Amino acid sequence: MSVPAETADLLAYIEASPTPWHCVAETAARLEAAGYTSVDETAKDWPGDAGAKLYVTRGDGSIIAWRMGSAPPADAGFRVIGAHTDSPNLRVKPKPDRHNVGYHTLGLETYGGVLLATWPDRDLGLAGRVTVTDGDAMRTELIRVDRPICRIPNLSIHLNRGVNKDGLILNKQTHLPAVWAIGDTETPGAFAAWLAGEAEVATDDVLGWDLCLYDVQPPAFGGRDDAFIFAPRLDNQHSCHSGLSALLASDEDDAPKATSVLALFDHEEIGSRSSRGAQGSFLRDVLTRVAGGTASDMARATASSFLVSADMSHGVHPNYADKHDPQHRPMMNGGPVLKTHNEWRYATDVESSATWRAICRDAGVPCQEFVNRTDLACGSTIGPIVASSLGMKGVDVGCAQWSMHSIRETGGAEDPPLMIAAMRRFFGWG
Predict the structure, then answer these.
(1) Cβ neighbours for 146, distance < 8 A, ≥ 6 positions apart
(2) Helix (H) / strand (E) containing 228
(3) CB count in 10 Å sphere of residue 396
(4) Phi then psi for 235, rounded to 5 degrees?
(5) What domains are there in the chain, each with its CATH number?
């Protein structure tokens, strides 16, 4: 099969985004290239003219972009696509230096629901952000060490005879420290000194860091006919890319009455409970200002608004098909998946699901359905959080994938253009 241009662009987006902070930086760069202007939360006034294209960030890990509609938001509402920039991974502790039997290792902490067994025996780089002194001030900048710095080596099967029967069980404290050097003596502060060298500053100028390990192997097309994509962080940079691509593509359409909004949040994988997460005030703060600044403006706007919460979906697995409800088995390359849960783990209800199906039909895009097996616990998304906190109608959708929360996941190569087309139609809906 020919490789869709949208999917090749998705792989480039993921390769540029080893961390949520890099994801926001890449998103901002693409917005700027398309004529969007950055605004600051501390600014007294933001441009509000019809057609204005703006974005704002918070905490480097969350970003909201919008294109003003032809009618005021208080009258026409918002069309919001929400997704999250973070993915489960391993992060470097504040005092990471360890030494044991002649090897230097780094102490790591899990972030989110990591599928731990997929991390050993990978070529691991380090990326994130580092805060340093800059004269009398401080600055925080992105850093990326795109070479195999770390390794979490598996124990040989000869010393773990039951591993194929009992499964690989990793203790997060004792089995996860990543090997990164050989040396006979302990060297406290060695990591900070090395990091200072990478950042080209003095060791004493390093004040702290948010650093993630990541697999340096780049994303790729795969399968006999290139029908698959193999990549890290499909959950949920796939949805971030779809929403961003749809927003930029919709700029070419006639200006809709409603204001188009893309909201990408950090910290979804750990519950969204932060100032820049979906449970924080970021989206409400931004939409209130865009709507006109008053509680009444905001209430009127949200009453006419609609949220598409975009997060990846569990595609039916040929080796574990019994893990799906028999009537709800999404296929990769089958198009967007509509996700429903009657205990409100997703924001979908009968009215919002009908709207999404109509959008897909109007865009010429197939719509699949997912409902969790009734006897299995269901995950959740930012959808119910945003919909309930803002009083906004919403729906949960995603593209099918395998190996969710693995260091390397699998998706369908034909799904990105289908989701982008549906989201583009959504921005002009109503």
Answers:
(1) 18, 125, 127, 216
(2) strand 228-231
(3) 30
(4) -90, 95
(5) 5-87+232-427 (3.40.630.10), 89-215 (2.30.250.10)
Q: What is the pLDDT of residues 156-203, one digit of tens each?
A: 999 999 999 999 999 999 999 999 999 988 889 999 999 999 999 999
Which helix (H) or strand (E) is 313 found in, with range?
strand 313-314
Phi-psi region of 50 (alpha: psi -120 to 50; beta: other; left: phi over 0): beta
> Would you say 251 and 66 are in contact if contact means Cβ atoms under 8 Å apart?
no
Residue 1 has pLDDT above 70, yes or no: no
Alpha-carbon distances of 331 from 78, 187, 316, 318, 421, rounded to whole Å: 31, 51, 6, 10, 18
% helix, strand, coil for the chain, step of 5: 30, 30, 40
Other CB atoms within a 10 A radius of the CB of residue 163 amount to 15
Is-contact 364 421, C-beta < 8 A? yes
Distance CA 340, CA 383 (A): 11
What does pTM read for this prediction? 0.97
Contact by Cβ (8 Å): 201, 192: no
192: its two tokens = 């900070």
The type of residue at 203 is T
Residue 47 corresponds to which amino acid? P
Task: Provide CB contacts within 8 A for 145, sequence distance 6+.
Answer: 125, 126, 127, 198
**Amino acid (one-letter) located at 409:** E
Q: Report d(CA 411, CA 7) in Å as an integer.
A: 10
- The Cα 231–Cα 223 span in angstroms is 13
Closest listed residue to residue 83, CA positions, set 421, 419, 415, 398: 398
Band of pLDDT at residue 2, cut at 50, 70 and 90: confident
The distance of Cα 212 from the centroid of its chain, to the nearest Å, equals 14
Burial class (CB in 10 A: 0-12, 13-18, 19+), 407: buried
The span from the CA of 6 to the CA of 22, in Å, is 20
Q: Is the peptide bond before 236 cis (omega within 30 degrees of 0)?
A: yes
Mention every residue, 6+ apart, whose C-beta is less than 8 A from residue 157: 163, 164
